[in-house]
């Protein structure tokens, strides 16, 4: 049986998704040896866009059955690479929350590029003031985009980073001849083992400088829901999956509230609106919450979720 060719690219990203892919471990080795052939993957393979010595005049990424892109789209080069990958790959996977929903980089959408350059190159206390570089720098787009705002995407694997279980499941599904794969549309709360008492009247919101109430000698399923304790856990509006196919939510397993890294539960959902409604229904005044937009859309600022106000 011929191997399935795979091309992988990273755009506005940190390489955490690539590390998550490597964390598949022995299963990945077996897949590579028997079933997969990477024809383009900059993180580990030296394959130039314009030929190995720059002899070509047009970007050339090899054709592949499966394309994987991590990272959001922030500049004109990212757009060019994304379109070339879409052109050359039969099935395109958006890997990680930066690609699926904008991720942390999309927090910049609350500001414009002039404000960005002013702070980074002139106002930052750790920077000697200077002019923004222009030579050999791809021009910035007007904002940070999710991958599907630029090209069509076939499969979404959110997460910061995605759990190796889901990457493995998607690849195995494709090897079985399936052209679709989707993670379950469930919230973190649906998989959370903590105790929900369901009492109305949310206490004052607490910062994580305080410790939640729990018995360290007892398992996580003996601890009361962190949101009910007054900590801003985003489990109600975040897609489940960070613990893999069968594990508990990762942050909550360490007695920390969910930070929302798997993005909205379903495409088109608006976590900011949904979460504000949940807080209000429990007696908390959302207007008293600092940085509401940045906190609640920390990982999903693309798709016009975050924009500059005024």
From TrEMBL:
Keywords: Oxidoreductase, Periplasm. Gene3D superfamilies: NADH:ubiquinone oxidoreductase-like, 20kDa subunit. GO terms for cellular component: periplasmic space. It is found in: Periplasm. The keyword Oxidoreductase applies. One of its GO terms (molecular function) is iron-sulfur cluster binding. Coiled coil: none annotated. This is Methyl viologen-reducing hydrogenase. It comes from Desulfoplanes formicivorans.
């Amino acid at each position: 049986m011929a191997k399935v060719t795979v091309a992988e690219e990273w755009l506005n990203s940190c390489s955490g998704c690539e590390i998550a892919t490597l964390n598949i471990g022995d299963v990945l080795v077996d897949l590579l040896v028997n079933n997969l052939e990477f024809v383009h993957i900059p993180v580990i393979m030296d394959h130039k866009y314009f030929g190995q010595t720059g002899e070509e005049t047009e970007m050339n990424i090899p054709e592949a059955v499966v394309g994987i892109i991590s990272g959001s789209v922030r500049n004109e080069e990212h757009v060019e690479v994304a379109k070339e990958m879409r052109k050359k790959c039969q099935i395109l996977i958006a890997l990680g929350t930066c690609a699926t929903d904008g991720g942390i980089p999309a927090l910049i959408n609350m500001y414009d590029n002039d404000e960005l350059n002013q702070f980074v190159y002139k106002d930052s206390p750790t920077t000697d003031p200077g002019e923004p570089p222009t030579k050999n720098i791809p021009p910035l787009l007007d904002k940070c985009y999710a991958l599907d705002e630029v090209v069509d995407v076939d499969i979404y694997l959110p997460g910061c980073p995605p759990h190796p279980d889901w990457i493995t499941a998607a690849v195995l599904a494709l090897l079985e001849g399936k052209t679709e794969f989707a993670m379950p549309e469930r919230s973190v709360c649906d998989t959370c083992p903590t105790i929900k008492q369901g009492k109305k009247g949310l206490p004052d919101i607490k910062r994580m400088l305080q410790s939640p109430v729990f018995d360290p000698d007892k398992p996580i399923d003996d601890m009361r829901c962190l949101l009910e304790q007054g900590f801003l856990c985003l489990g109600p509006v975040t897609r489940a999956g960070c613990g893999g196919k069968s594990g508990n939510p990762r942050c909550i397993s360490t007695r920390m509230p969910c930070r929302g890294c798997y993005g909205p539960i379903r495409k088109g959902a608006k976590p900011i609106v949904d979460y504000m409604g949940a807080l209000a229904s429990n007696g908390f005044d959302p207007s008293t919450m600092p940085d509401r937009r940045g906190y609640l859309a920390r990982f999903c600022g693309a798709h016009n979720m975050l924009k500059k106000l005024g």
